[in-house]
């Protein structure tokens, strides 16, 4: 069977329906820009061969959407990925490839990433994860000035800290992602995706299921509060009580 993509998403259709379905943040004038800017997955993976190194793959393929330095592109819904640890990058790329992530018909950004991952070998996944991990992290944007952080801090300490740690850096033993190097719109979308079962709902995805369970109890308002608090955490806030420090 050719190693070509098993399915290719029409980027224009993808972006158009994405804007219709789930893009609360996008302004109408970015819609046209996104539709014309989104690269074709087929064209991108056309040049991919088994012998291409992780560094070359990053430059030729990944950078188109995630940027030279892993800074992501808001208009393409592609997140910051710079500095994600190797274990996490590998795990997520494998989840995309196996269909544990990016499987849901309404998860168009996830489907696009899945289409890319289908062309990658195990060895290439490990190499690219190392390339990404070596990039300096880009921190989550700080919350708007004047945001009251007290409740977010308290809720983070009670609901998230045991797995994502006091500093939001995640924990390999729990397979929990670092949070403080992700952009706000992506953080928000992932919490909504878990809550709606667009991510993490596959029966084999035991770690994703933890997030489905946790986010199922969150209101939109609470999600917003966590996004704000993760931004504060990225810029030095500490959720621990005095005696735990
Ligand atoms: C066509 C655009 C596109 C290309 C090319 C692309 N990505 Fe992505 N990537 C995305 C989008 C969109 C998402 C967000 C998916 C979601 O919302 O779940 C994403 C998500 C990811 C994630 C998950 C981040 C996290 O915190 O869980 C990783 C890791 C990733 N991409 C790595 C890569 C690598 C490595 C390459 C090159 C092989 C690549 N991407 C190429 C668009 C792209
Ligand atoms: C029981 C452990 C656990 C708790 C508690 C927990 N998480 Fe997670 N979280 C995880 C795991 C494991 C993952 C990776 C799941 C996967 O692979 O999809 C994750 C992933 C995430 C992601 C996606 C990151 C990315 O790069 O795509 C976000 C955002 C997140 N968690 C936020 C939170 C917030 C906010 C809380 C508190 C309300 C929380 N988590 C509580 C274990 C946990």
List keywords for this structure.
mainly alpha, Cytochrome Bc1 Complex, Chain D, domain 2, binds heme C, single chain, 245 residues
Give the helices and strands, then pairings:
Blueprint: H1 11-22, H2 28-37, H3 41-46, H4 54-66, H5 86-98, H6 108-117, H7 122-133, H8 150-159, H9 161-164, H10 184-196, H11 206-215, H12 220-234
Bound molecules: heme C (2 copies).
Question: How would you sum up this structure, described in words?
Answer:
The protein has 245 residues and is mainly α. Helix content is 52%, strand content 0%. The protein folds into two domains: 11-133, Orthogonal Bundle (Cytochrome Bc1 Complex, Chain D, domain 2), CATH 1.10.760.10; 150-244, Cytochrome Bc1 Complex, Chain D, domain 2 (Orthogonal Bundle), CATH 1.10.760. The protein has helices at residues 11-22, 28-37, 41-46, 54-66, 86-98, 108-117, 122-133, 150-159, 161-164, 184-196, 206-215, 220-234. Helix 4 (54-66) crosses helix 7. The chain is globular and about 55 Å long. The N and C termini lie far apart (56 Å). 40% of the residues are buried. It binds heme C (HEC) (2 copies).
């Amino acid at each position: 069977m050719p190693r070509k993509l098993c399915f290719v998403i029409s980027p224009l259709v993808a972006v158009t329906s994405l804007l219709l379905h789930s893009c609360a943040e996008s302004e109408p004038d970015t819609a046209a820009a996104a539709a014309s800017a989104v690269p074709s997955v087929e064209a991108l993976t056309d040049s991919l061969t088994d012998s291409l190194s992780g560094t070359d793959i990053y430059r030729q393929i990944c950078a188109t959407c995630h940027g030279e330095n892993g800074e992501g592109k808001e208009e393409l819904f592609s997140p910051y990925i710079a500095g994600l640890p190797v274990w996490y990058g590998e795990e997520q790329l494998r989840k995309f490839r196996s269909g544990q992530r990016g499987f849901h018909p309404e998860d168009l950004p996830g489907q696009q990433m899945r289409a890319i991952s289908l062309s990658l070998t195990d060895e290439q996944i490990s190499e690219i994860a190392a390339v990404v991990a070596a990039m300096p992290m880009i921190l989550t944007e700080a919350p708007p000035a004047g945001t009251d952080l007290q409740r977010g801090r308290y809720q983070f300490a009670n609901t998230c800290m045991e797995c994502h740690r006091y500093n939001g850096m995640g924990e390999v033993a729990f397979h929990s992602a670092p949070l403080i190097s992700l952009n706000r719109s992506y953080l928000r979308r992932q919490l909504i995706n878990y809550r709606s079962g667009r991510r993490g709902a596959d029966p084999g995805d035991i770690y994703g299921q933890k997030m489905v369970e946790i986010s199922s109890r969150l209101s939109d308002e609470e999600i917003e509060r966590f996004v704000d608090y993760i931004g504060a955490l990225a810029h030095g806030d500490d959720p621990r009580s005095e005696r735990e420090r």
